[in-house]
């Protein structure tokens, strides 16, 4: 048994290398399915999922911002694949690390802030004080809105990371019960199946929430 429960999230395969990060490129093996002469059930399911999600993003964005739909859909697909791969035994879960989630959240957030400062400064400043706010509360409203804008990439990253870590820790703890004997093993199997189904749903939901929030932030620029 591991001395440290969080070792299951350690990306290091040795003292000098972190080859576990290579699992992020596993999506490359899925691409050839889209080029089969006869589509499989797997490729048909993915096409329907992507088509529905792409349509959802286009409906969510303003008409002049639909060009960002492809970027948001790509982020959703990449995160979703990494979330699902992390549910398989002995496969590293990249999305459970802050560096992975920050890689998507921070560049997009910085890009939107720079765009607003350079092109829509007046609109950006007017959003700091919501319409109808009392004059004596203006200072506090500016402070609150500024803080909420600054922590957006952090909350976006932590939400995904925390959900993936909590689910994997729960699965690991429950699987450790089976070491106590055959009786506990038989009792834990139904719970493990339910938990894995729940974590599969969480993998989809968190990917969807991450992408939808990004599309909402893009809408505000």
From TrEMBL:
Transmembrane segments: 20-44, 70-92, 98-118, 125-144, 164-187, 194-218
InterPro entries tied to this protein: ATP_synth_F0_asu, ATP_synth_F0_asu_AS, ATP_synth_F0_asu_bact/mt, F0_ATP_A_sf
CDD domains: ATP-synt_Fo_a_6 (cd00310)
Name of this chain's protein: ATP synthase subunit a
This protein's record includes keyword Transcription: no
Membrane topology: Multi-pass membrane protein
Gene3D superfamilies recorded: ATP synthase, F0 complex, subunit A
Organism ancestry: Eukaryota, Metazoa, Ecdysozoa, Arthropoda, Chelicerata
Cited Pfam families: ATP-synt_A
GO CC list: mitochondrial inner membrane; proton-transporting ATP synthase complex
Predominant location category: membrane
Protein family membership: Belongs to the ATPase A chain family.
Subcellular location: Membrane; Mitochondrion inner membrane
NCBIfam families, sorted: ATP_synt_6_or_A (TIGR01131)
Keywords attached to this entry: ATP synthesis, CF(0), Hydrogen ion transport, Ion transport, Membrane, Mitochondrion, Transmembrane, Transmembrane helix, Transport
GO function term, MF aspect, one: proton-transporting ATP synthase activity, rotational mechanism
């Amino acid at each position: 048994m591991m001395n440290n429960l969080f070792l299951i999230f350690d990306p290091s395969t040795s003292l000098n290398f972190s080859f576990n990060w290579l699992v992020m490129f596993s999506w490359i093996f899925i691409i050839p399915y889209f080029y089969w002469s006869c589509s499989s059930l797997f490729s048909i399911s993915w096409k329907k999922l992507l088509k529905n999600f792409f349509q959802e993003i286009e409906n969510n964005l303003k008409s002049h911002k639909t060009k960002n739909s492809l970027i948001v859909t790509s982020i959703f697909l990449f995160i979703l694949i990494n979330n699902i791969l992390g549910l398989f035994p002995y496969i590293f879960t990249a999305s459970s690390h802050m560096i992975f989630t920050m890689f998507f959240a921070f560049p997009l957030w910085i890009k939107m802030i720079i765009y607003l400062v350079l092109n829509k400064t007046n609109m950006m400043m007017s959003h700091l004080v919501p319409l109808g706010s009392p004059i004596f509360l203006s200072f506090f409203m500016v402070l609150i809105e500024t803080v909420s804008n600054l922590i957006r990439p952090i909350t976006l990253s932590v939400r995904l990371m925390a959900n993936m870590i909590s689910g994997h820790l729960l699965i690991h703890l429950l699987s450790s019960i089976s070491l106590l004997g055959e009786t506990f093993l038989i009792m834990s199997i139904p719970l493990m199946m339910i938990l894995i189904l729940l974590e599969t749903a969480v993998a989809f939901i968190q990917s969807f929430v991450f992408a939808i929030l990004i599309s909402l932030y893009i809408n505000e620029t």
